[in-house]
């Protein structure tokens, strides 16, 4: 079963591309074939994907910033890939709306900044209005990014996010670690603590039926 997952947030610098490459690393490492349509003009996730790294799994990419082309493109790749992971520049453009409509799940990254919190809330409101307009639900949930363990703001920010109607927050957190940035800079798959944190995120998504179970490889005869 294929899944289109988009990462959308109003504010830049909240970890959208980091979340994309982290999910791609884990899912491709499980044996799924993954494509990253990169609609951000900075091309951070596709620059990561285009590097030829042995052992990273099957990860393709493409770049598309034309809002009139994105819907057909996403519909076409669904038949070829297990996961389509769409990176975006934000939702202040028509293309983000088209992407959200085609997505099985929208992930909303949020760091510890006030502007990120406001951006996450605005993003959910945007998705709720879009869902009402098209007459079908758009599944979405917040992923907390770059939080420091043991600090008070983890609970405070989570409570603030949870006060917003329709805004769901995952229990898993991609805690602060430099290994995320290392992967982004080198093209390598995520490793060490970054890998552990993202695996926890993927397990929760599966436990909540937001993504399918991992593929099961048959033993060789």
Task: Please characterize this protein's 3D structure.
With 221 residues, this protein is of the alpha/beta class. The chain has a single domain (3-207), classed as P-loop containing nucleotide triphosphate hydrolases (Rossmann fold, 3-Layer(aba) Sandwich), CATH 3.40.50. The protein has eight helices and seven strands; from the N terminus they run E-H-E-H-E-H-E-H-E-H-E-H-E-H-H. Strand 2 (34-38), helix 2 (44-49) and strand 3 (59-63) form a beta-alpha-beta unit. Helix 1 packs across helix 8 (192-207) and helix 3 (70-77) packs parallel to helix 4. The longest helix is centred in the middle third of the chain and has 21 residues, at 114-134. The model has no long low-confidence stretch (mean pLDDT 91).
From the structure above, extract its key features.
seven-stranded parallel beta sheet, 221 residues, 7 strands, Rossmann fold, alpha/beta
Please specify the SSE layout and strand pairing.
Blueprint: E1 3-7, H1 16-29, E2 34-38, H2 44-49, E3 59-63, H3 70-77, E4 83-87, H4 94-102, E5 105-110, H5 114-134, E6 140-145, H6 153-162, E7 169-174, H7 179-186, H8 192-207
Parallel strand pairs: 1-4, 1-5, 2-3, 2-4, 5-6, 6-7
Brief overview, please?
With 221 residues, the protein is α/β, with parallel strands linked by helices. The protein has helices at 16-29, 44-49, 70-77, 94-102, 114-134, 153-162, 179-186, 192-207; strands at 3-7, 34-38, 59-63, 83-87, 105-110, 140-145, 169-174.
Query: How many structural domains?
Result: 1
CATH topology: Rossmann fold
Please give the radius of gyration in angstroms.
Answer: 16 Å
Q: Main beta sheet, described?
A: 7 strands, parallel
Distance between the ends: 26 Å
The H-level CATH homologous superfamily, spelled out, is P-loop containing nucleotide triphosphate hydrolases
Give the class from helix and strand content and strand pairing: alpha/beta
Q: Helical residue percent?
A: 40-55%
Please identify the top-level CATH class. Alpha Beta
**Rounded mean pLDDT score:** 91
Q: What would you say the CATH architecture is? A: 3-Layer(aba) Sandwich
């Amino acid at each position: 079963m294929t899944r289109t997952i988009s990462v959308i947030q109003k504010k830049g610098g909240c970890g959208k591309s980091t979340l994309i490459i982290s999910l791609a690393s884990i899912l491709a490492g499980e044996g799924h074939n993954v494509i990253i349509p990169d609609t951000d003009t900075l091309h951070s996730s596709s620059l990561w994907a285009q590097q030829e790294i042995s052992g990273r799994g099957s990860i393709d990419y493409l770049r598309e910033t034309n809002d009139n082309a994105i819907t057909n493109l996403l519909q076409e790749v669904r038949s070829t890939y297990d996961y389509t992971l769409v990176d975006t520049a934000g939702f202040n453009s028509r293309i983000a709306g088209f992407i959200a409509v085609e997505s099985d799940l929208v992930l909303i990254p949020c760091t510890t900044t006030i502007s990120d919190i406001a951006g996450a809330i605005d993003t959910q409101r945007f998705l709720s209005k879009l869902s009402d307009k098209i007459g079908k639900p758009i599944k979405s949930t917040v992923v907390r990014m770059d939080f420091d363990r043991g600090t008070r703001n983890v609970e405070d920010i989570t409570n603030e996010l949870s006060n917003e109607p329709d805004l769901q927050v995952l229990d898993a957190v991609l805690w602060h670690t430099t290994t995320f940035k290392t992967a982004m800079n080198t093209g390598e798959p995520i490793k060490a603590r970054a890998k552990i944190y993202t695996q926890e995120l993927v397990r929760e998504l599966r436990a909540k039926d937001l993504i399918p179970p991992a593929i099961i490889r048959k033993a060789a005869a």
